[in-house]
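Box S1 | Example of a co-folding query
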Amino acid sequence: MSFPEIKEVCVVGAGNMGHQIGLCCALAGCTVRCTDVDDATLARAEKFADSYLEARVSKGKLDVDAAGSVRNRISFPPEIESAASNADIVIEAIIENLELKKRLFAQLDKICPEHCILSTNSSYIVSSKIAPATGKPERVCNLHFFNPALVMRLVEVVQGPHTSEETVQRVFSFAKKINKTPILLKKEIYGFVVNRILKAILDEALHLHDIGVADYHDIDTAVVDALGHPMGPFRLLDLVGVDLQYQVCMERYRDTGDLRDMPSPLLVEKFVRKEWGRKSGVGFYRYDD
Ligand code: CAA
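Box S1 (continued) | Returned holo structure for acetoacetyl-coenzyme A
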């Protein structure tokens, strides 16, 4: 059986990751329908698309006509049925909750065309936990983007034991079409490649702070000025969200019972104070705009 090229994309979950993923696809020429159960999130996503494209034009990175075409290719329907019924691929980017994801995939399985690939952008939940909720597990995989999705080139394609070779190939071609660099993970593993490496860095940075070795500004300076990272671990925590990192640690601790997986005292303090980073205006640093 041959499959059509992926042209129609449905993104479910219009938060920071979802709407940027949608824009990446629209910029690459795909028709994108980005949906969410929350009207306010959907409205914010639409506003972001307008202001992002306007800024691209003012920076001279896109001409007005091209920006207009991209804007025409992305829409934000509130109903999942109209968002997904014609999709060649769905990219799920909702919150990290397995039960919600299973329910959503079961619903998508009924709505989407037979050939449609169902992918999840989950950072930690492997698709073999979700695929049994569908009638086509061979078309289910992880397709993991990084924050900010409009900028970061890498995507991780994770092949579960249920994912067919053909699905992997189609997702790889799609990733290249949207100007990403895909890497293949041939096994499902907690945290995939990037977040396993990142966790080691974040844990050590938090530990060094917690035991009083250095202030977090200095730890960030060390990582930027000695290791050449574009931002230090604390500024990065502000970007990805202190709340997300806290929840990821708690979830992992519940699974393993290993005290080393507990969030560090500093992360707990920031979480409780709702100092969650860029999204709340303050995290380890302040974000006045
Ligand atoms: N959203 C969209 N675009 C953004 C952006 C954002 N939040 N922040 C910056 N950009 C764009 C800018 O518009 C600019 O684009 P152009 O060059 O095309 O005009 C470009 O990125 C560079 O921006 P700046 O000059 O303002 O700033 P910078 O050079 O310091 O880059 C950065 C900002 C790209 C965020 C850079 O600091 C960086 O790469 N940081 C590391 C990010 C990282 O490690 N991400 C992975 C996080 S882990 C993760 O995502 C895992 C997970 O599972 C959640």
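The domain at 195-272 is CATH 1.10.1040.50 (N-(1-d-carboxylethyl)-l-norvaline Dehydrogenase; domain 2). Residues 138 and 163 are 4 Å apart (CA to CA).
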